[in-house]
Amino acid sequence: MKRSLIDILDLSVAELDELIASACDIIDNPAKYAHVCAGKKLATLFFEPSTRTRLSFEAAMYELGGNVLGFAGAQSSSAAKGESVADTAKTVSCYADIIAMRHPKEGAALVAANNASIPVINAGDGGHCHPTQTLADLLTIYREKGGFDNLTIGLCGDLKFGRTVHSLIGAMSRYKGIRFVLISPAELRVPDYVKEDVLDKKGIPYEEVTDLETAIPELDILYMTRVQRERFFNEEDYLRLKDSYILDLKKLTHAKNDLCVMHPLPRVNEISVAVDNDPRACYFKQVLNGKYMRMALILKLLKEAGTI
User: Fold this and answer.
1) Alpha helices in the chain (DSSP H)
2) Catalytic residue selected from 52, 90, 189, 256
3) Can you give the pLDDT at residue 232?
4) Which of 41, 54, 102, 128 is catalytic?
5) Could you say which of 54, 128, 130, 226 is catalytic?
6) Does residue 244 surpass a pLDDT of 90?
7) Is 38 exposed, middle or buried (0-12, 13-18, 19+ CB in 10 A)?
8) Neighbours of 17 (CB within 10 A)
9) pLDDT in tens, 7-26
10) Closest CA to 162 of 264, 244, 245, 233
11) CB-based contact 227:255 (threshold 8 Å)
């Protein structure tokens, strides 16, 4: 039976645990997985620029013994001629066994999934969500903290358009003792629908603040995000807000010794490069963890589809 992943909440907590266990086994026993997808093809349909997500999907499929085809920009696909997402999904279903798709429009991955005859993985749809980044985030938290309960999580920067933030809030809201500190300018706060449908609905404590330095001492996890130029309607607003938060070593002197600093990347200047050598910096570990979780997800969806 074909199954797709559009939103992180498509996966139950038990399935998240299963994917984490699978990723950990891949880390420990890479040779065991080197040929499990031999003869299978992943199509990467990236209508929007990407480095980590696209290359990690490709690396994941190659390390499983499979092959990759696809495109890395809308201009190099028939979308430039006006082809619909639905028709692209139907067409690519004739060539591949599974699709990973990034698109600038919210809901595009769902349209693709509804029209493809093979599994579709949402690799980011506009400002909506980015479930496989959240899988990378979860494996990072698991490996750094040993579990997900009783954590105070600070989310900092662009919380309005940050699809990684929306997905992570949804995922972490299912664990016990979670508390969020939402750090952003007033213009870039978490959207009301996320607060109402997730945080308020589940009674999860959170506070909205504008100052990073005041918030940092209480945090177990600090999830930094960039202010995304591509989501703004005018340059003036972007320039006014782009440097709202910059994490440097001075700010980290007030943080816990076991703070886990995360970032979905790419960064611009919101984390000083001097922080990279601090043992609390986990954002490049996230990159590697993303590859392992995407390997685990590809395996899961192809097995459920009866392809492997």
Assistant:
1) 13-28, 52-63, 85-92, 108-115, 131-145, 163-172, 192-194, 201-202, 212-215, 235-241, 249-252, 283-304
2) 52
3) 47
4) 102
5) 130
6) no
7) exposed
8) 14
9) 999 999 999 999 999 999 99
10) 264
11) no
Active site residue 81: yes
As a whole number of angstroms, the distance between CA 89 and CA 114 comes to: 9
Whether the CB-CB separation of 280 and 77 falls below 8 Å is answered with no
Q: DSSP label at 256? A: -
Who's near 233: CB < 8 A, 6+ residues apart? none
**What's the token pair of residue 253?**
């002197």
Q: How far apart are CA 289 and CA 143, in angstroms?
A: 9
User: Can you give the pLDDT at residue 242?
Assistant: 54
Mean pLDDT (the chain, rounded): 92
Residue % of the chain over a pLDDT of 70: 92
Over residues 69-86, the pLDDT tens digits come to 999 876 656 666 678 999
In this prediction, residue 236 carries a pLDDT of 66
**pTM exceeds 0.90 for this model:** yes
- The H or E element spanning position 182 is strand 179-183
263 is catalytic: no
Q: Running DSSP on this structure, what letter comes out for residue 270?
A: S
- Alpha-carbon distance of 43 to 92, in angstroms, equals 7
CA 25 to chain centre: 21
Cα(234)–Cα(93) distance, integer angstroms: 38
Residue count (the chain): 308
CA–CA distance, 97 with 41 (Å, rounded to integer): 5
- Return d(Cα 28, Cα 215) in angstroms, integer: 37
Amino acid sitting at position 288: L
Residue with tokens 């990159």: 287
Has 102 been annotated as catalytic? yes
Let me know how many helices (H) and strands (E) the chain has, helices first.
12, 9
Q: From CA 35, how far away is CA 255, in angstroms rounded?
A: 44
